[in-house]
Design brief:
Blueprint lengths: L3 E7 L2 E7 L9 H16 L5 E6 L4 E3 L7 H4 L3 H20 L4 E5 L2 E3 L1 H8 L2 E5 L3 E3 L2 H4 L5 H10 L2 H10 L3 E2 H7 L4 E3 L4 H14 L2 H16 L3 H15 L2 H12 L9
Parallel strand pairs: 2-3, 3-5, 4-6, 5-7, 6-8, 7-10
Antiparallel strand pairs: 1-2, 8-9
Helix pairs in contact: 1-3, 10-11
């Protein structure tokens, strides 16, 4: 089966599956290029409450970029520049997604896969997952944007450990380092992901959107205009029908039915 980015929408949840099973879901150039379009599609759908990134099959989330393409797609400085721009755009699109993003990680999560996971808001893995940033073992350069995001997720000493050594670590250590939100036994992964998706599906969309915008403004560097925009989004929460529904549901001791308006 050819490498592909598989997209589906199941109720309020959008799924983005990296499918290249023979190469442990290594990402092709075309797949990198399709990520921003997929995020834009999901963001534009008001029914979608969360976006899940995952890998096809049982052995890998994403093993990184598809090295078999490098001679053709990354064989010169000019070609590498074009390729790197596509990769950066994919990471940036996931980071900038208006909906919460969750990486469902089973098995291998290395190189570009690790940075894809880091670009998500939430990460859940099975405890036998294997993480690594092997660039130092391959002589590859690591983009500034990738290092910056890793240091937003991890303390600098842990980020240095992972990047400088290229060593691998399992789900237990990923949890201890703070890279993932949860590490669970293999047979509990889908249940853990479903629980988070249920929570996200029940959360007030405007509240989550405003909070996520605030987090991005903080991580990117605060500016007056950006802070003002976040404050406007927060004010909109208090003026929304969802706020009225939340108060009413609390008084009536029932779950609120938020509509994102």
């Amino acid at each position: 089966m050819a490498a592909a980015l598989l997209l589906r929408e199941v109720g309020p949840i959008a799924w983005m599956t990296f499918s290249n099973v023979e190469r442990h879901n290594a990402v092709s150039y075309e797949m990198w290029c399709e990520v921003p379009q997929a995020i834009a599609r999901f963001d534009a759908n008001p029914e979608i409450r969360a976006i899940v990134l995952t890998g096809d099959g049982e052995k890998a989330f994403v093993s990184g970029a598809d090295i078999s393409e490098f001679e053709k797609k990354r064989g010169s400085l000019d070609a590498s520049t074009i390729y790197n721009e596509a990769v950066d755009a994919a990471y940036a699109a996931v980071l900038a997604a208006k909906k919460p993003t969750l990486a469902r990680i089973r098995g291998i999560c290395m190189g570009g896969g690790l940075y894809l996971a880091a670009s998500c808001d939430l990460r859940i893995c099975n405890d036998k997952a294997r993480f690594a940033m092997p660039a130092a073992k391959l002589g590859l350069g690591i983009r500034y944007e990738s290092v910056r995001r890793l240091m937003e997720v991890l303390p600098s000493a842990h980020a240095a450990d992972i990047v400088f050594t290229g060593r691998s670590f399992d789900g237990h250590e990923a949890l201890r380092l703070g890279f993932v939100n949860r590490s669970v036994p293999e047979d509990e992964l889908d249940q853990a992901v479903s629980q988070y998706l249920e929570w996200l599906g029940q959360a007030a969309p405007l509240t989550v959107k405003a909070a996520k915008a605030a987090m991005r403004v903080w991580s990117a560097g605060e500016s007056f205009d950006d802070i003002a925009a976040v404050r406007a989004m927060t004010d909109a929460c208090f003026a929304s029908a969802d706020y009225q529904e939340g108060r009413k549901a609390f008084a009536e001791k029932r779950k609120p039915q938020f509509r994102g308006a």
